[in-house]
Amino acid sequence: MARPYPFNESDRLELDPTYQEVLRDEPVSRVMLPYGGEAWLAVRHADVRTVLSDPRFSRAAVVGRDMPRVRPEVEENVNSTMNMDPPDHTRPRKLLAGAFTTRRVEALRPRTAELTAQLLAGMRAAGTGADLVEHVSVPLPLMIICELLGVPVADRPIFRSASDAIMSMSAITPQERLAANADLESYMAGMVAQRRITPTDDLLGAFVRAQGEGDRLSDGELVDLGIAVLIAGHETTMSQIGNMTYTLLTRPGRWAALRGDHEVVVRGVEELLRYTPILASGGFPRIATEDVELSGVTVSAGETVVVSLNAANRDPELFDDADTLLLDRAANRHIGFGYGAHHCPGAALARMELQEVLGGLLREFPDLRLAVAPEDVQWRTGTRVRGPRALPLAWGPENGGRQDTAPTDSTVASFHLYDLRPGCLGSACPGRPIGRDAYTRRAE
């Protein structure tokens, strides 16, 4: 009998115990997704890597198909790099890979450190306590990726809200999600058109030049590439800044254990990427184009497979003490950024930003702690990724910044929710706040 999937409500950072059960007894099992019926779920590290890298598992095959999925909409976007297989996927992927090489990312480290220092100074100026999400988690990754793309400062909060809508699963209605996506496509198309008239040195300008020099990207692919960079370039990092800080502060001795030189932080970030579950459910499903065997189970041609990166990163066959956070873990072969052709091209950027933020927090706030009880931290719900809506922190004397209650509405509302009505995206519509419930409520 197929288990309902996702297994649990992913509003915190604990994996459902069912994952341990299937890792041990049924690594490839039948699950019932919210829409489209049954699929196979692969959880072991080796099987997940196979599904993500073997060309017999296709992302392109999902387009236009009423298949098992976690959202009600049938995937229709042929321009999305996530819906392409090689060789079509190779063209935009080549552009992305060139933009986020290790050398180029390291060149961004001084600017990231500068922005981090400014944001942490602003957080300290709040007194003996502040919300990490408002002061650091949201603004830093957004500033970095928008500077790279060339997004005007005035439009950045609107991009944040659009990304939030597009990444939702059940937090908003499908119609709201499609409207937000259409608005973002229209805005990005306008940015592309501007760069054809007036070339720029930013990343989007480079994409436009590459198209003009014969890179064979269609206009639709170019627009979608810009959107993919925008969302992927900040969404996961934004969530993981809060997730990692929460994880460290709720485990005795872990915050202090990371204080040291840069390499201690680097290794700690890798273990946190392995240990901290970021996805709220299985990753993007794939369809088998022919029969494939996984852990002794035959996945037939035409069947859908979903994978759990969260579970694969807790596979005891690969990781000793897989369910324990070991900040000095060596040879960490986690797949927190995916694997294969769709491995996150911005992984190096995300790593660098996480290293700078955690390193900065450790230096500036060695006595950092939660300002509320762990159970009072409020979490995003109904989205593809897990993360706190607000993370109230305190420093200094124990009684100086502790809050006795959960964050107020005004604190949580700092998550930059803006008007996403059709036609209201961009500098012509200056991001009017419309209230905290507009894009965080459950779809009825």
Automatic annotation (TrEMBL):
Name of the protein: Cytochrome P450
Q: Which domain of life is it from?
A: Bacteria
- Pfam families named in the record: p450
Q: Which InterPro entries has this protein been placed in?
A: Cyt_P450 (IPR001128), Cyt_P450_B (IPR002397), Cyt_P450_CS (IPR017972), Cyt_P450_sf (IPR036396)
Which key words tag this protein in UniProt?
A: Heme, Iron, Metal-binding, Monooxygenase, Oxidoreductase
Q: Name the residues that span the membrane.
A: none
Q: Which PANTHER family match?
A: CYTOCHROME P450 YJIB-RELATED, P450, PUTATIVE (EUROFUNG)-RELATED
Family, similarity comment: Belongs to the cytochrome P450 family.
